[in-house]
Design goal:
single chain; about 35% helix
Length: about 475
């Protein structure tokens, strides 16, 4: 019988995704077939599976930790915000449409059936399912229609581990307060709590743990330290954006547009010795980097308008006029062209001038391009001519059609591509960084090869080792076994 365990959090960014990924790794190491599941994800950081379907990045990470291929059944509903009040709704990997919050809640009964079908199908193939909740499960105004927290726990008949973030303060109040707002049936599902992101002396914390257990009548399943692991982040709460590092010999500035998406494209560059990657959201922060990257975005036209109004567009154009390299990916590539047109209202409609740094135009269409890509780049000129023929593996995910899709095109050391993950291969990332070294008169032989896949595997093992040391795994296994016996 399939065992289940659900990780819920007292708030967003409490560490649910990482703990779920770590448990997936532990169960895999212990010889079980394990898969992750999250009924509903809200994120702009998405992924295209081998069969051309779209899912949230967090479950991709958890699948990798579990040693299995990402599958849209692991994330049947993905919401990609398009505004403060609406999102693009993706069901089982395909676009359902753009919904306001009110429209989405009206359709929830139909979506619930899709969630149940995906979960039951996945559960039939694995020994253990690690389920992740979303945000806080104690939003009392939303509980009646919940399908991602306690509603999901009830649907799956899963025991719950409730996670609190001690780093932001108030962890005892947040755990006790969340339990207070649960119904009696919901409280009965919580079999343990986890205190996450702890820094300090555990002996000083222990009296508080005893008092907490007396208050909530649930055991503390572990205190997880603040771990230095480098694993893909789910959404814009990522700490990568705030990271400050000036020690690199090569400085790469990524424009942090308001609807930035798929910023995991730059993880491999961040991990390379001698490379500093920083995110900037104003012309005053740009400085004089060695390369500027325009990332993917969920709203190309709106974010280009923001760049124009903030002064970043003119700063980037001035930067490019000096022959310095600018690299656009997906939405960033679209911005670099001459013209953008939205006749179907995909991004609100209208036409606008592009940055004019590349000789293409983009027309937005209602049908989304979703393809996994693998191959070799065509001829590349300019500073990055060494990329010609380089092997790559990635994916395309966009609503617009432009010239020269799928390959890098260049004019004046300005480059653009639709391929997400272009820097994940040693060949492409290494070639780009070596060229930047040489442009500064540095010895490019110092650039070391970097294997992203090997690096990620090592990070998952570090995460699992850290959780084994800090969680009561005997208790967690017992919780799952007792739950299975009750079915």
């Amino acid at each position: 019988m399939t065992r289940k365990i659900m990780i819920q959090g007292t708030c967003s960014n409490a560490g649910k995704s990482l703990i779920a990924a770590g448990l997936c790794r532990i169960f895999r190491q212990d010889g079980y077939r394990v898969a992750p599941f999250k009924a509903q994800n809200m994120a702009l950081n998405s992924y295209i599976t081998a069969d051309g379907l779209e899912m949230g990045r967090a479950q991709v990470v958890q699948a990798e930790a579990a040693g299995i291929a990402p599958d849209v059944r692991m994330n049947p509903i993905l919401l990609k915000p398009t505004s403060d009040e609406g999102s693009q709704v993706i069901i089982n990997g395909e676009v359902e449409g753009n919904y306001t919050a009110k429209d989405f809640y009206r359709e929830k009964p139909a979506f619930r059936a899709k969630v149940r079908e995906a979960f039951e199908s996945l559960a039939s193939e694995y020994d253990i399912i690690v389920i992740e909740g979303a945000g806080s499960p104690a939003e009392i105004n939303l509980k009646d229609d919940d399908l991602v927290n306690m509603g999901m726990a009830e649907m799956a008949d899963a025991p719950v581990l409730l996670t609190g973030d001690i780093d932001r303060g108030g962890v005892f109040a947040s755990l006790a307060g969340t339990m207070l707002l649960f119904t009696e049936e919901e409280r009965a599902r919580v079999k343990g709590v986890i205190i996450n992101k702890f820094r300090g002396d555990l002996d000083i914390l222990k009296p508080g743990l005893d008092m907490l257990e007396d208050i909530i009548h649930v055991p503390v399943a572990g205190v997880v330290p603040y771990m230095n692991v480098d694993i893909d982040d789910e959404d814009s709460l990522t700490e990568r954006f705030a990271k400050k590092n000036s020690s690199g010999l090569v400085d790469i500035a990524v424009i942090r547009v308001p609807k930035i998406s798929n910023f995991t494209d730059f993880n491999a560059l961040e991990c390379m010795d001698g490379v500093n990657v920083r995110y900037v959201d104003g012309p005053g922060q740009l400085g004089d980097p060695d390369m500027v990257i325009l990332p993917g975005t969920k709203s190309t036209m709106a974010d280009l308008k923001w760049m124009r109004e903030s002064g970043l567009e003119s700063a980037v154009i001035k930067f490019a006029s000096r022959g310095k390299p600018v690299f656009g990916i997906c939405g960033g590539y679209q911005m670099l062209g001459r013209h953008l047109s939205d006749p179907e209202g995909v991004e609100g409609g209208g036409d606008m001038r592009g940055m004019g740094l590349l000789p293409h135009s983009t027309v937005f269409a209602g049908e989304k391009t979703r393809t996994a890509e693998e191959g070799a780049l065509s001829d590349v000129t300019g500073m990055f001519s060494g990329l010609s023929g380089a092997r790559y593996k990635g994916y395309e995910i966009h609503m617009g059609l432009s010239e020269a899709e799928g390959n890098i095109i260049n004019e004046r050391n300005v480059y653009g591509t639709y391929i997400h993950g272009i820097f994940d291969s040693e060949e492409t990332a290494g070639t780009v960084v070596k060229a930047l070294y040489e442009a500064k008169g540095l010895d490019s032989s110092e650039v070391k090869a970097f294997d992203m896949d090997e690096y990620k595997e090592r990070q998952y093992d570090i995460l699992a080792d850290g959780l084994r040391k800090s969680l009561d795994m005997e208790l967690i296994y017992r919780i799952m076994e007792d739950s299975g016996d009750e079915n």
